[in-house]
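Forum > Structural Biology > Help requests

Title: Can anyone predict the 3D structure of KTR3 protein?

Hi all, first post here. I have the sequence for KTR3 protein but no way to get a structure on my laptop. I'd be grateful if someone could post the structure tokens.
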Amino acid sequence: MVQEDCDSTAVHVDRSAQAMKLQKAHTERMRRESWLLKAIAAKLQVDRFLVKHGFRVNDDVNKPKKTAFGLRCTYPLHTAARSQDWHMVCLLLYFGANPLQRDSRGRTMFTYMEGHCVPEEVRRFIGQPQSALPDFIKL
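Reply #1:
Sure, ran it for you. Structure tokens for KTR3 protein below:
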């Protein structure tokens, strides 16, 4: 009788451990899928911004838009900073926009940021590595 109780308890403990492993694996998979969905949503936001402002939608957010018969050029990052769209500034930086890129007038993203009240979250993000996507999507 005692042996049966011990065996039964061992089986329950083993099943509980297996259930906990499965739950942990499921939670991790859901976390990864959630992150992936956020990344896809962020890319769609960037694509909509590019289309709205006359840029080509492609994999390179460093492609300029030429204006004035090709004599002037500007970049998506400059457009976002000029319009004080700080969330888009962060998204573009995450997707590889060069903050030091100069437009046809020699201005960088930082030039456009001067004199504006830039949120502290954006200032912090500019100094963070590209892996910060989940942090700035909440902006």
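The first strand starts at residue 65 and ends at 67. The domain at 39-136 is CATH 1.25.40.20 (Serine Threonine Protein Phosphatase 5, Tetratricopeptide repeat).
Shout if anything looks off.
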